[in-house]
Amino acid sequence: MTTESTTEPRREPDRRARPHGKVRRRLGALLAITAALVLTGGAYAFFLPNAPTATAQQDAGLVAKGQELYNAACITCHGSNLQGVDERGPSLVGVGDAAVYFQVSSGRMPLARQEAQAVRKQPLPQFDPDTAEGRANLDALGAFVQANGGGPEAPMQTGAALRGDDPARGGQLFRLNCASCHNFTGVGGALSSGKFAPSLTPPTEEQIYTAMLTGPQNMPKFGDRQLTPDEKKDIIAYVKSVTEGNNPGGYNAGGLGPTTEGVIAFVVGLASIIGFAMWLGAKN
Description:
Residues 61-149, 165-243 form the Cytochrome c domain. 51% of the residues lie in helices and 1% in strands. The chain is mainly α. A hairpin with a 5-residue loop joins strand 1 (189-190) and strand 2 (196-197). Helix 4 (96-105) packs across helix 8 (205-214). The protein starts with 18 loop residues before the first helix and ends with a helix.
């Protein structure tokens, strides 16, 4: 007796290509590439600065004017390529226009003579920041140094716009980063090797800001990673609040610190008691 197999024969898979499947995949890939290109182009157009048309020409003219000023006032000490001159002046490569503004507007440069520290004095008339011509010349000189040496850039804002909205936070940051040299109220103090931390009363907001950026003399540099621009502005707000005659009352004893009056009263009182005791002893 024979048994018939009930197993159905295995069907071979249909290996014929499906044209609509390939077309769909290709269209999907094309759409993905197109979307990526559109997103990339949009992001580039969004973050790309304005086209440097007239600005580039204006900057070129500003740099050329700055070079003339540099050749007339700075080249003797700092060299024709900002490389510096031995025993005359350091290299200006990497100092940026922030250092140019601070040093020149405060009269520290050009140096009157070689000494332990450059002191503040009246700036040259052509670089006086209080005049329109002086400000324009400072911008031109800074543009030349910035274009050829790079470095920190001076802030775009000026004056009261550089004062932050939180002087209390500025006071905390000042006590943490600055008071050890400049004293609690910014009156300055002596350092080693004939150097000193200057008083913060004369400097303008721009000069304080550019000093924090560039770290003149023994002062450390406070870039935007160490102190954000807003934190710098809060420090400036605090400094101006304590250097513009804002005394809460009483004799400020030169503004040497928050406990100065108490220390003076203690010393004077103790000396008076000791003197009176000695007088009584001598009389007896």
